[in-house]
Design the sequence.
């Protein structure tokens, strides 16, 4: 257990993400909230069943953005530890591509911080999902236009 | 001045490159760079309204002036997570 500065652990990995213990665990944290995003089975009306996902990332900018988001969650929700891991490359059905793991003093802020981080990641971080179907591929049709800084 | 432009996702795939170098006049803005890119590449023209732009890994607006040595990135709609 530790009473030191909030922990930020941001990583892009070349494999599915997984949950592991935050160590050292912050002594003042009474709660931990974990979100894992997995690839679900889907069928496209024109391309058949989903085979796998391929993630492309603007790696250096994505890491900076994720670190910024982690710091925002510390400032806004008093997080004592923030871990955000995201996969690059191939992810199969059922595998997890994104992990958000936060530790806060109490549960309200843990839940809010976790939700904030995954929502913001999906809106601003330069990561793209290519969906490989039985017959063809699509760049995710639920992609979000980045509004930040646009005039 | 020369400006490197990074491309990603469907932009890179359609254009067939992950980076382009363009020539801009000193003091050119992001908007002027986009005009140049849209003239050369139909895909950029078609997606222009949905693309965000980053200079040196920071999102910017289209009035932002580009400096010599800056790296632009065209950011299509994102889909992380």
Sequence:
């Amino acid at each position: 257990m530790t009473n030191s500065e909030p922990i930020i652990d941001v990583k892009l990995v070349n494999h599915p993400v997984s949950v592991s213990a935050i160590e050292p665990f912050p002594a003042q944290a009474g709660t931990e909230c974990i979100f894992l995003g997995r690839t679900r089975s889907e069928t496209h009306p024109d391309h058949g069943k989903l085979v796998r996902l391929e993630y492309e990332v603007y790696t250096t900018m994505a890491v900076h953005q994720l670190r910024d988001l982690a710091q925002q969650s510390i400032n806004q929700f008093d997080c004592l530890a923030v871990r955000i891991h995201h996969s690059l490359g191939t992810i199969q059905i059922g595998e997890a591509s994104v992990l958000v793991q936060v530790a806060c003093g109490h549960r309200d802020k843990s839940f809010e911080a976790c939700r904030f981080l995954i929502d913001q990641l999906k809106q601003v971080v330069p990561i793209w999902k290519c969906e490989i179907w039985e017959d063809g591929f699509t760049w995710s049709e639920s992609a979000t236009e980045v509004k930040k800084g646009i005039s | 001045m020369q400006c490197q432009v990074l491309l990603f996702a469907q932009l890179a795939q359609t254009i067939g490159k992950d980076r382009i170098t363009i020539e801009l006049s000193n003091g050119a803005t992001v908007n002027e760079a986009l005009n140049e890119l849209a003239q050369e590449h139909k895909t950029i023209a078609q997606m222009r309204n949905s693309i965000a732009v980053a200079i040196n890994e920071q999102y910017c607006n289209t009035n932002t002036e580009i400096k010599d040595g800056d790296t632009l990135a065209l950011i299509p709609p994102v889909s992380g997570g």
About this structure: The interface with chain B takes residues 37, 55-58, 60-62, 64, 86, 97-98, 118, 121-130, 139-140, 142-151 of chain A (CB under 8 Å). DSSP finds two helices and nine strands in chain A.
